[in-house]
């Protein structure tokens, strides 16, 4: 019996070994709600496998920021299966290739927080292209300072721009 990720047979569907909910649909969880179609997702999914989905960020980050989430409610990297982890590496690279081809950023950031006031949240790994123009727009801020300014600022990209971006990103992602 493997113990390095959610073990549904052993843990009777709902709980992993640390007592956190795992591997089931959790209504009210943003990740689960998007995956199950209970919440509006501008642009739709860019990629979907049995294990992972990729979509444009929902929230106040710059246009072109992608989010990778497990299709099941998993809230710890340590709980990913080996197969999901291997797929993640390739999907991160393809996500980065996609945003770099479309936006030519100065750098592409990768961040995982998934940490809310109640504790761990559904994993969501942010792949964020940061162009020279974005850095200028935020007064030269970079890295975590830039992300903090975006989250505090609350500026959400225009819905039509997100839809257009996702259409392009789906086409690019499919060939990288
Ligand atoms: Zn969830």
Supply database-style keywords.
single chain, 176 residues, alpha+beta, HIT family, subunit A, 7 strands, 35% helix, disordered N terminus, binds zinc ion
In short:
The protein is α+β, with helices and mostly antiparallel strands. 35% of the residues lie in helices and 17% in strands.
Description of the molecule:
By secondary structure, the protein is of the alpha+beta class. It has a single domain, classed as HIT-like (HIT family, subunit A, 2-Layer Sandwich). Helices cover 35% and strands 17% of the residues. The chain contains 5 helices and 7 strands, in the order H-E-E-E-H-E-E-E-E-H-H-H. It has helices at residues 30-35, 82-103, 132-137, 143-153, 159-175, and strands spanning 45-48, 52-56, 66-70, 107-112, 115-116, 119-120, 125-130. The strands form 2 sheets. It has a 5-stranded antiparallel sheet. A two-stranded antiparallel ribbon has the order 5-6. A hairpin with a 2-residue loop joins strand 5 (115-116) and strand 6. Helix 2 (82-103) crosses helix 5. The chain is globular, with a radius of gyration of 17 Å. The relative contact order is 0.17. Mean pLDDT is 90; it is low at 1-13. Residues 26, 29, 31-32, 73, 122 line the site of zinc ion.
Architecture blueprint of SSEs:
Blueprint: H1 30-35, E1 45-48, E2 52-56, E3 66-70, H2 82-103, E4 107-112, E5 115-116, E6 119-120, E7 125-130, H3 132-137, H4 143-153, H5 159-175
Antiparallel strand pairs: 1-2, 2-3, 3-7, 4-7, 5-6
The protein binds zinc ion.
Zinc ion (ZN) binds next to helix 1.
